[in-house]
Amino acid sequence: NSQLKDLDPAKLKVNLAQRLQPLPALSTLKFGETHTDHMLVVSFDPKTGWSDPEIKPYAKVELDPMSSALQYATNCFEGMKAYLSPDSTPLLFRPDMNMSRLASSVHRLSLPPFSTSALLTLIKRLVVVEKQWMPPKSGYSLYIRPTVIGTKSTLGVAASDSALLYVICSPSGPYFPLSRGLGRPDGYIKPINLLAVSSHVRAWPGGTGGHKLGLNYSPGFLPMSHATEKGWDQILWLRGDMVMEVGAMNFFVCLKRDDGDIDFLTPPLDGTILPGVTRASIMDIARAHTSSLSFSSSTSNTTLDGLTSRLHVSENPLTLTTLIQWSREGRLIEAFGVGTAAVLCPIGVIGFEGEESELPSTEAKDSAFTEAGASYPDGNIERPSSLVDSKESK
Ligand code: COI
What we know:
By secondary structure, the protein is α+β, with helices and mostly antiparallel strands. The chain contains six helices and 21 strands. It has helices at residues 68-72, 95-108, 116-129, 221-229, 277-288, 320-329; strands at residues 13-14, 38-45, 49-50, 54-57, 75-77, 80-84, 90-92, 141-150, 163-172, 178-179, 188-189, 192-197, 234-239, 242-246, 249-256, 262-266, 311-315, 332-339, 343-352, 355-358, 364-365. Helix 2 crosses helix 3. The longest helix has 14 residues, at 95-108. The two termini are 31 Å apart. 2-OXO-4-methylpentanoic acid (COI) binds next to loops.
């Protein structure tokens, strides 16, 4: 209906919080446990369309107990990150990819559509308002969680013709604990140990696994609890013998080829795999280095000089049996999970049906994590009111 209003950033109202929370010490940050002071909220009414967007103090959302989101899990979301550049400019990482994935999740749930470029403009405004929450330390970022839920109040099983779109932010650091062993003052990304699960399946052909819907995640809580009770870090999702994803991350392996080159493999996007932004980015980087692999960097001491192999990137189905076979034959260089929240995490051990296979893995040393004890700057820092230009303020 062309009479319905679309999201309109020009109509944004900014209502700043009177009281701001103290900024947390970075060393205490646990993924997803801290929210910033403000949120962006817009709602869709079937008669009028999208409301005027508002940035307002973070607050609870009121829902009718009959609402579609509560009854039928009509919920989709994105995970994206903003980083502070060395000159303190907030930078979003490939947000266009998150926007198009959100549009496809919204469509899959038959929720009302909106202009994703308008949403991106609004997210940028929110990030500027919350700029002080962006940790000034490499390896840390502001995790942004756009969420769309169906708010129609009926127990009738049908599409929700009303919706709430909101965006919240959470400062984030390393997703998994870093190892800080003896003689190793720097942080290392510890390889995680996975329990492979085939009795519960994350996604199947024709299902919703290729979309970022809340209902794809909650069924993982039970197998994940079983795995963590037994001391495993995460689950490896299988479908039959096929390797799918690692917890909430996409899966990659690196293999030695007979000609000395390296195969870089990940399962294909056949509708059962989440089209991860980090997944796509890692493949883009690997492809860009295919012809001349030299990872030396002038700004850090991370060098892989002398590595003259070429990377061959491919998206192919992969079985656990083959993976373990490659590991035994010494062909496997490494397996790892990737995602927006965790970035990249090496895999140490895979357990399946009582057997454990140790994979070769490097503890990824990330110079990002080497500055011990960094924190937000304290003292009289500028807070949001001075960051918003006056025409945005009410
Ligand atoms: C992400 O990596 O952003 C995810 O969505 C994984 C999880 C935190 C839900």
